[in-house]
Amino acid sequence: MSTEYAHDIVPEHAASRPAGSIALIISSAVMGVPCIILGASIGHDYGIARALMVIVLGCGATAVLAAAAAYAGVRSRRSAALLAKQTFGVRGSVVLNAAMAVALLGWFAVEMGFIGDMIAAGLKASFGVSIGRVPGTLLAGVVVCLITIRGIAVISRAPLVFLPLLVLLLSCVLFLTVRSLGATPLAMTPKALGSGVSAIIGSYIAGCLIMPDYSRFVRSGRAAMSATALALGPVYGLVLCTYALAAIATGQTLPTGILDGLGLPAVIGFVLPIGLLQNGVMCLYSSSLATSQLVPSAPVKTVAILLAVIGAGLAFSGASAFFVSFLVVLGIVFPPALALLICTGLDPSMRREGERTRPWSASRLITWSAGVASAISSEWLGFGLTGFSAIDGFIVAAAGGLLLVRIAARQSERIVVEA
């Protein structure tokens, strides 16, 4: 991982990766078990018509946020952790980098736990063998760690192995769902559209936040935006729609129940964990980049191995049980931070300033807090701008971030004139 530029701006000669690699990475990531559960839950809660509306709105908003983050990564050539340092200052960035490192490590643990459960369930259903979650979790953790420590060159190629199998599985599920749709309709509890949209955004908000980690290696900002929007718009929407319909058709909301209800052999369930491997790689890689800003003397490769061990331990302890609560917290805390990182990445003065950062930026920390407060107000107090807590937090922080960038630009102009 010596060429990952964990502490440096990516030089122009190294920014040569095709934008299509981003689309492949994200497309593979959104076909895993968490998205199946989310899609099935949306189908269960909203029914066909309203579920489609929720998915279109949620995926559209997620695609816009991620595309803006990808563009900021190309413009700045910085990872999310370095953008955090530029945004909040050297000491202030510790707050966000620590939050990213912990959240991504927790996401990694959740996904490794899902893999362990899925492998154990598949073996028991197919061969009657009971092994528990530990062996599958351990195996997945080792594979993800080996891919991660090889760096972006290997990470960007991993979907070439994962994605074809997942596309085949998705196609089978969609075909069988269309044939059996309406056989067992689910009872629905009316829910506000805002809750479903916020859940979709929250499910991938950590991915939006770390998008610069991958887009900084792409030469064209427009190409990076298009690739990101394609994966988190049509592809992500298709995955959620497929499993929303499958939940309605089968009367099930869990992956194994959906596959059984569609008549797919239990052994097919072994394909599902493969999608989580890509998620795990992305989380471990970006968590390592964020953690390396907290302990700059430690090699990034060593940090990744240590985090993989800690994440596996969390998975053994049952971190996946907190999946839903975890998504709610991410959807409130990270959108305002993402807005500020985007404002910093798009600031024209970034290239001129290089790596010069202030030791502390209280104004941006206050803006972040204001965005979080707005999201909390929208989510639990019923008072907000749009009715979508993640969007409300993003808008408030973005408005404050753009104002701070303009103030800083005027101050710089004044200093130049006086000089």
TrEMBL record:
Transmembrane segments: 21-42, 48-74, 94-115, 127-149, 161-181, 193-211, 223-246, 266-286, 298-316, 322-344, 365-383, 389-409
GO cellular component: plasma membrane
InterPro entries in the cross-refs: CodB, Pur-cyt_permease
Keywords carried by this UniProt record: Membrane, Transmembrane, Transmembrane helix
Compartment annotation: Membrane
Superkingdom: Bacteria
Keyword Cytoplasm (UniProt): no
Membrane topology (UniProt): Multi-pass membrane protein
One Pfam family matching this protein: Transp_cyt_pur
GO MF terms held by the record: cytosine transmembrane transporter activity
Protein family according to the UniProt entry: Belongs to the purine-cytosine permease (2.A.39) family.
Protein name: Cytosine permease
Annotated organism of origin: Sphingomonas paucimobilis (Pseudomonas paucimobilis)
